Amino acid sequence: MQGANFTLKDEIREYWTRRAETFDLSPGHGMKTAGERDAWAALLRAHMGADARRVLELAFGTGEVTRVLLGMGCEVTGLDLTEAMLLRARAKHAGAPGLRLFLGDAEETREPDNHYDAVVSRHLVWTLVDPAAAFRDWYRVLRPGGRVVIADGDYVRLSRTGRLRLMLSDWLAARQGATGPAVDMAAHEAIQRQVFFRDGLRPEPLRRMLEEAGFTDFRLERPRGPHAAQRRGAPLRQKLRVGIWNSFVLSCARPAGGG
Hints:
Blueprint: H1 8-19, H2 34-48, E1 54-58, H3 64-71, E2 75-80, H4 83-92, E3 99-103, E4 116-122, H5 131-141, E5 142-154, H6 160-176, H7 185-192, H8 203-212, E6 216-221, H9 224-231, H10 236-239, E7 246-253
Parallel strand pairs: 1-2, 1-4, 2-3, 4-5
Antiparallel strand pairs: 5-7, 6-7
């Protein structure tokens, strides 16, 4: 039993600490091929804009998206809540020019005002405790005209087709004796029940919250390129799992004249 001072963010930090060692083995987290990294680069560039150079990456994990951003020529400042992730990302990108990685909170970045061309996150927003505070902070650190790029999804509600694909994938894995990285589903579900988006993250309500924070110029799409790259060459059991959740990329801008 956790003590009274053990907060939800402490639970989140502890959960991702345990996941850090095998994080890159999970499909959709680790990028296994150059093709997948190239697909993410094309998607991010389309949403960030061709001139985006100074990027704040939030919840960088082991630095997979970080690698993509560096390959695009960006200067990256990264914040992550988990020291175990930070250590792995620093080891992965030791000596990389234009990279700064720190422990930090995505809801209160403490980064300078009007500083970044883009704020980028993948698989973060569904875990936010106070997304409204986070979005106000992201607006603050962006320069006018800068963009937020959110790659995320609804990891609560699954369609009937998605459930069937997941069941078939699990059946194939059991038949083939395949094992994946250990995931503490009880801890995952306990966190999911407490976060703001406990009923699932969908683009429409997310957009309304971002609009309330002052953002405009919204762009929305599914990550079809990265999904196609994940399927390429993967065994059937893994192909079946790609794209079953309502994954999306949503981006928006701080208005160019925004104060």
